[in-house]
C-alpha cells in the first residue's frame, strides 16, 4: 500500500471513530442540568442570550457559565478575510443558497437513515416547519457580516445548538430504543461532519446543478466558513478537510455512501414536500416542487425517498435551469436578467419564511447588515419591520 493510500485509510479510520464520539463539554452540562432538574429555568435564560456582544448571563448555573465561556471563540486559525469572502458571496447569492438548502440539502439529510431515525425518536417527523425554521436561522446568523465577532449573533446560536444536540443524545441513549454499540452515538461527531458537508459542499454542487454560477474562490470561502463553524460545534479540526476538493472527496466517501431508503426518510421528505407545495396557490403546480427537488438531488436519492416524478415538470425545471445559466452569464450586462434571477430566489425564501411557522408571524431574524444590503438591491425576502425594529425583532 502506498503512503497516500495509508494516509487515506488512517483518515477514514479516524472518521469512523467519530461515530462513537459525542460532545463531552455539552454532554456534561446536560447531564448536570437533568440531574438537578433545572433545564426549564436554563432554557428561559438562554432564550434571551442571542448576540455575541452579550455578556454571559449571571443567572445561570456555574457549569453552564463555564461551558459558554469555554466555547465562545473561533479557532486561532480562523481567517477574517476568508470569512468576509463568504459574506460577500452570501450577499450576492444568499437567496439561491436558501433555495438549494430547502430543496436539496434538507432532502439529502433525510437520505441518511441513522439521522432520520433520530428525528423519528424525537417526534419531529411531523414538524418540517420547525426544522426548516431552525436551519434557516442558523444559516442566516452564520452569514452575517461578522458572525464570530462583535455585532454578530452566531456564537450563541452554535452554543445553544450544541446543548440541544446533547439533550437529544442524553434522552435517546436512555430511551431503550437505541443500541450505541451497534449504531454509534446518536447525533455523533460523524453525523455533525456529515451535516457540515451537506450544508457546504452539496449546496455549492446543487447551486451549480440548477444553473447558478459560483466561482472557485466563492466556493472555497463558503466551505471555509462552514469549517470554522464545525470547529465551534466541537468537530475535531483534523477530521475536517482543509480544502474544498478534499471535502468533496470526503463527502463522496462518507455522506453519499451512507445514503439509502428508510421509512423515516420517506416520511420526512413527504412532509417537507407538502410544506413547500403550500407556497404554490391551488394544486395545478404542485408537481413543480418535486421536480425542483429532483433537479437538485441525485435521481437515486429522489427515488429512495419516493419524490414524485412528473416528466413534464422535470423537463420544465431542467429547461428553467438552462435559462438560469443564460441569465447568469448575462447578469453583469442585463438589469432585466438580474431582476429575474434575484426575484426568483427571493420569492422562494420569502414564501418559505411565511410558511415555516404554519402561517404564524415569522420568528426568523435576518441580520441587519444582510437586510440592508438586500433591501438596497431590492431582493430582501422579508419586508422591513414596522417602526424599523432592530433585525426584525
Automatic annotation (TrEMBL):
**This protein is called what?**
ER-bound oxygenase mpaB/mpaB'/Rubber oxygenase catalytic domain-containing protein
The ER-bound oxygenase mpaB/mpaB'/Rubber oxygenase catalytic domain is annotated at 126-325
Q: For this protein, what is any one GO molecular function term?
A: oxidoreductase activity
Organism of origin: Amycolatopsis mediterranei (strain S699) (Nocardia mediterranei)
Q: Which InterPro entries does the annotation name?
A: Lcp-like, MPAB/Lcp_cat_dom
